C-alpha cells in the first residue's frame, strides 16, 4: 500500500490496532448511511453503566460524501471541500482509510491522534482533519478526549451495497452494444486468467483488486458517467467487505471465478435477464446477509 504516501514503509509505521476502551456506559453508534444506526460493539450496554461517565454522541453523518470510493482529484477538491491533493491531511486520510479498508484497523479498533501523528510523521492537526473526514464518510465514530473507533459494516449496509451493485451492473449490461459486449467480454476473460494466477499464488489482495476491476467493467459497459462515478464511490466499501472475508476467501476463489465466467458469458450473449439472475446469486455468496 506504499502508493498512499509514496513510501512503502509508511504502512508498516502505522500504529498497531488496539481494542477500544471506552466507558462501559457507551453504546457505539455506527454511521453506516446518512441516518444513524445504533450498535454496541462489546463495549458495554447503552442503558447506563456504573462509571457515571457521559458518552458523547457521534457527530451526525452530514452527507453521502465519499461512501468508500476513490474519488478523482476534482471530485475531492470541489465536491467534498477536501484539502489539496498531496497535503498532509490528505495523505493521512488516505493512509488511515486504506488501513481500515484492508482490515489492518478492524472494526472496534481505537485510533489515537497522537499515535497516528507519530507514525505518519505529521502533527496532530492534519490527523484531526483526516479523522473528521473519515467520520463524515461513516468510517469511524469520534469520541472527544477518548479517540476514534472504527465502524463495522452492518447487515443493513451490506444489503444496501449488494442492491446498489446489482442496479449499477445490470443497468450497464442492459445498455451495452453488441460490439462493446464482445470487446468487454474478452477484457474480462483476461482478468479471469489473472484471478486464476492470483488464486494459484495465494495472492488474496491481488484477487480482491481484480474482482473490483472485473465488476466495474459491467457498469462501465453502459457508458453512463454518473453510474460509473457512483460505482467508484462504492469500491472501498466492497474492498472492506472482501478483506473482512480473507480468512475464507482463498478457499472460495474457484467458486467465485466460476461465477465470474458465467457472468461474462451472459454479457457476451447480451442476456440481461440471465445476467441479473446470476449476479443476484453471486452477490448472495459475497454479501453474507443478502
From TrEMBL:
GO molecular function: DNA binding; DNA-binding transcription factor activity
Name this protein carries in UniProt: Fatty acid metabolism regulator protein
Gene3D superfamilies cross-referenced by the UniProt entry: GntR ligand-binding domain-like (1.20.120.530), Winged helix-like DNA-binding domain superfamily/Winged helix DNA-binding domain (1.10.10.10)
Organism: bioreactor metagenome
UniProt keyword annotation of Repeat present: no
Record keywords: DNA-binding, Transcription, Transcription regulation
Keyword DNA-binding belongs to the record: yes
UniProt domain HTH gntR-type: residue ranges: 86-153
PROSITE patterns noted in UniProt: HTH_GNTR
